[in-house]
Amino acid sequence: MKFPIAIEPATENTAWGVVVPDLPGCFSAGDSAEDAFTNAVEAIEAHCEILAEDGDDIPVPRSIAQWQADPEFAGWIWALVDVDISRFEGRAEKINITLPRRLLAKIDSYAKAHGETRSGFLAEAARAAMR
């Protein structure tokens, strides 16, 4: 899942700051921009793990454009970090669904072209639809 992060550049006295607005209370920092990105992924994973342990849903991230419009983040730099949250969503379950043959072929072709599986594509499509 791709999470928007708001980045506050370092100054002489501060490190690079990172806030994950879709996960209230999730923030991180780093001595360099690269460290800030790495630490942001670790912070998101830790935050999602706590949510899962508490039985809470992991919020579906909003778009960067939606967050950029928030005056609280005026002047911040924005980026996306990709975090595999599948391990926090619970055990995989096999299901039986019915789809039109041509649609299924298009799904399989698209997923293959993008290095995904059918299940991964359908899961991500469901998450996107629920945003």
Automatic annotation (TrEMBL):
It comes from the Bacteria. One of its GO terms (biological process) is regulation of DNA-templated transcription. Pfam families: HicB_lk_antitox (PF15919). This is Phage-like protein. It comes from Sterolibacterium denitrificans.
